[in-house]
Design goal:
Distance between the termini: 45 Å
Mean pLDDT: 89
Strand content: 35-45%
CATH class: Alpha Beta
Shape: elongated
Strand order of the largest sheet: 1-3-4-5-2
Number of helices: 1
Structural class: mainly beta
């Protein structure tokens, strides 16, 4: 089985945390948005804008020091829009508040998932076809 490659992989910083030491949901949503755009560009090199985020589910918290990976998959390509599924996993490294040092070395946990709908736009921000339209005879 080939190794999955994340669209984005990062370590979140103290500036990204709330008063409880977990990462703000909005920070995760921001990275989901970026990861979906990376995936959309694989289909066609357009400028994309986010139309909707559907079925966003937060399963587990993300802690300071977790290594967070955003995996993407194209679900649907329409005429001007593309739907991307983003699955977010955290590698735990024992830095969660109250966790003993050394607990959870590398444990992978699915923390969030979402579907993102993006629309290809031109330089005037109007929708454009993702793929060239066939010539009409």
């Amino acid at each position: 089985m080939p190794e999955r490659v994340p669209a984005i992989k990062l370590v979140l910083l103290p500036k990204d945390t709330n008063a409880y030491g977990t990462i703000f949901g909005g920070v995760i949503l921001s990275h989901i948005d970026l990861a979906s755009a990376v995936e959309a560009r694989k289909t066609a090199p357009h400028r994309y804008v986010t139309r909707a985020m559907r079925e966003v589910e937060f399963h587990e918290p993300v802690f300071l020091g977790d290594i967070v990976s955003f995996y993407t998959e194209t679900v649907r390509v329409g005429r001007t829009s593309i739907t991307v599924r983003v699955s977010v996993e955290a590698e735990r490294w024992g830095l969660a508040p109250g966790a003993p040092v050394g607990v959870g070395h590398g444990e992978r946990v699915k923390v969030t998932e979402a579907e993102v709908v993006l629309v290809a736009v031109d330089d005037r921000w109007r929708p454009v076809p993702i793929r060239p339209e066939p010539m009409q005879a």
